[in-house]
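dumping these here so i dont lose them again. two proteins, back to back, each one seq then structure tokens. dont judge the mess
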Amino acid sequence: MNFPISEKYIYFDSARSGGMCLDLLSWREKHDNLFLHMGSQFRLNNDDFIDNVRNGVGNFFNCNENYIFLTNSFSIGFNSLLSILNPNLKFLLIKNDYPSIIDQVKSNRFKHDFVENTFDLEEKILKKIEKYKPQVLTLSIVQYLNGVYIDLDFFKKIKKKFPKLLIIADGTQFCGTKLFDFDNSAIDILISSGYKWLFSGYGNGFILIKKNFIKDFINKNYNTNIEEFLYGTFEPGNLDTLSFGSLLFSINKISDFGIDKIENRINVLADYAKEKFIDYNLLDYQVKNRVKHSNIFNLKGDDSLYQQLIKNQIICSRRGSGIRVSFNFYNNEKQIDSLLKFFK
């Protein structure tokens, strides 16, 4: 996979937006050229096309026994989900998690409480569930601010102790960085956008739902079977073949390349970076003291330093009080060393 953005810059910003590979650009040009010349006839087989996208998502994430829905983004999918859940549910959230999670739970007026986002986050979650007794735990698998990663085995630990708890996960900063088996995970609902680590561009995402669990949490005001109700909720109207075709194209490219190779390379870079960042005292106490971490880091640095990095074609993001960098499989150790030259 050829990503021109990684040749032009030291691109450490996939956590904000993944690059586009040349092959996807070529596919999108062919797609729009067909639309240009065929008009309405271009979508005669649209239902089959969308089914192929769902099947591709199901195969990539091993979600063959459960529900798969397409959505334009995590935020839209999550809001659609909240609109059909029982309004009396109590949510447990992580403090400073992705704003769209927190804001939408609040705006939909669900009862909720927070877990402090500390180095012992998993222990805090278990204690808070025991004390607060929520029906729903909603969190990002990888925290967008500093890359704190919730290991998938921890969700199994939660389920073993609290089997009736509904676990809703945001996979936007996770999906595409590691091999993920939804059917055999302890996550009940996973929602993700595709424009970051899946290299699919904007306007596409997906929702994976455990069939035998969701029905207990839905507000029962519907007059059709649950599957039709969910399709009406998550996929109303026409779905854009360019956006969702881009998602299918990209996950097929990732599959051909090897998600295992991507995961291994990202892990090597993340381990190398974390060790260097600790030596330079660039990490906060929380991240520095966690055993497992993702490929996203928030480094100590001000706006002046951030502007200097951008000026020198090192692309990253300002997040919170620091500078967020994120490493993809097309990055390398020399680029991390180049980044560190700007930190004294």
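---- next one ----
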Amino acid sequence: MEHENPTNFLKRPYAGPVRQRRARTQRKPSFPITLPLRNYLRNYAREHSLPIKYRQLERFLTSAPLYDANGDDTLWETLIYEPFIMRQLSNGLKKIYAILKAGGDLSVMQHLYVDRIDYCVFGNSKPFRIRIVNSHNDNQDYFYIKTADASRVYGLELEHLLSPNRMFFLTDGDTLVEEHIVGLPGDIFIDHWLESKRLRPIRVAKELVKFNERCFVRLLGDMRHYNFIVDITPDFEETQIRIRSMDFDRQSYDGRKTFYLPQFFKENNTLVQFCVSHIDTKTAHQYQREEHALIARRMDIIDLRLKALLAAMASDDLAPRKNLLQLRSELAEHYESDSFLRCDSMGELVSHSLNHMRDKARGR
């Protein structure tokens, strides 16, 4: 298969600064949460009554650009509210944090305060980022409030079920609350950590191959280096890394097969070239098979829950018809299986892709 050959990583060169491209990226439309998905979220404790909704955070007076420690524009803006509105928001946001982190135990709120509310106009979900600070030790944490786009919700839940990562999020009507995902943004990792002697190149290469597979079989798109993070964990002998998604807006939307393969984005080319120089085809195939076996095992463990999610997804309209027709045609050619041509929704394509992968992993 084409994506199994690591030499394909070299097909596209790197070009251009990322910040300019972000502003020009065409926005994907937001899809509402339909009744089948809402029922799924209620059944699996993802739906919760929240004291603050997305629209309430839009009542700010003004904003100021937020710069990082180096003086670079972060593309986030810090918001300023009327004092009485800020007091209302602070109490509600602390309650949301308690629900997200402590199962609703409000006693954790006593020593917390909302230090800052930021807003990003470039994301599809136009997220608000809430910074919570512990007054006892100045420890800080973040969470996000976004518009509840069905594509993103499906992406978050598929990540939770099929990847090694757990995702904590809640919905309430048209509001989505997400926990902060800790790690180095991919572009920063590439610029400052890729050549670090603390990391073994083969471990980086292995993780890129496995990440590439996870995205492709569940059709998570647009994994450019600013849409994933790298989690670096010191181990007793060597440092481990894991690449994980932090943006799920383009779950099963695009019609191009390559859009679901991180290896083909020019923004990732530096990382891809580094990995190709440290791994051979046989080893890459081994890592692919390992990841397929792990995903298949997870599918077996959460079989009923996954089927419920995919049934809701199959009934949803998550992409233009032309995208569906293009993607199912390209997947049929890729896998040399006309069975993909019978899929009539993006949800059905995801389900068929996962089942096809599981059958192959088991030698069927």
